[in-house]
Design goal:
It contains four helices and eleven strands, in the order ββαβββαβαβαββββ. It is of the alpha/beta class. Strand 8 and strand 9 (160-164) form a beta hairpin. The N and C termini lie far apart (47 Å).
Length: 181
């Protein structure tokens, strides 16, 4: 018998002063049986950092040809492809060819650093790719706050972010390993 996805619901209030985006979103995330709470919460954060009413979670781990999150043009083309984790360099190259913009959110501390050292020379050639690294202690603290029903407030100002669930506020300045040109 195949395991089914676990459904998580989140109310996310975004105040992104850097982009001038202010919105309240009711989000539903399906956690694949092989997905960790840490990855799930990084996907939620990635949605918040790119908040847009048209931004959608995709089938993610269940589909090889889709990102974790995307924003599509009205004509159906992909405007913004958002990945989470440490994907294969060929997957990112394919994403960059299919989308106007690609953002990758890495996490996992030393593993992410080793992945970056190995892949950075090839990825530097992808002009529409941004690579953002999230501190391991932050993502682990975020994973510890995962719940089937969540309420979050995300504030972004001058590159710094604060994420609060009403009981605890987590603070982070994400590392930018590569910025799209």
């Amino acid at each position: 018998m195949a395991l089914k996805a676990t459904i998580f619901k989140s109310s996310l209030n975004v105040a992104d002063m850097d982009r001038g985006v202010y919105l309240d979103a009711q989000l539903t995330l399906a956690r694949h049986p092989s997905e960790t709470d840490e990855r799930l919460m990084v996907r939620l954060l990635a949605w918040g950092l790119n908040a847009d009413p048209a931004l959608e979670f995709t089938k993610g781990l269940s589909a090889d040809d889709e990102p974790d999150i995307w924003l599509k043009h009205l004509h159906g083309g992909i405007q913004h492809w958002i990945e989470v984790g440490l994907p294969d360099e060929r997957r990112l190259k394919k994403a960059c060819n299919q989308s106007d913009r690609v953002t990758l959110y890495t996490y996992a501390g030393r593993g992410a650093q080793l992945w970056w050292q190995q892949n950075q020379p090839q990825l530097a050639r992808l002009g529409n790719l941004s690579v953002i690294n999230l501190d391991e202690s932050f993502t682990r603290a975020l994973a510890a706050r995962a719940a089937r029903a969540m309420q979050w407030q995300l504030t972004v100002n001058e590159g710094q972010l604060w994420l609060s669930d009403g009981e605890q506020t987590l603070e982070l300045t994400p590392g930018c390993w590569q910025s799209a040109g």
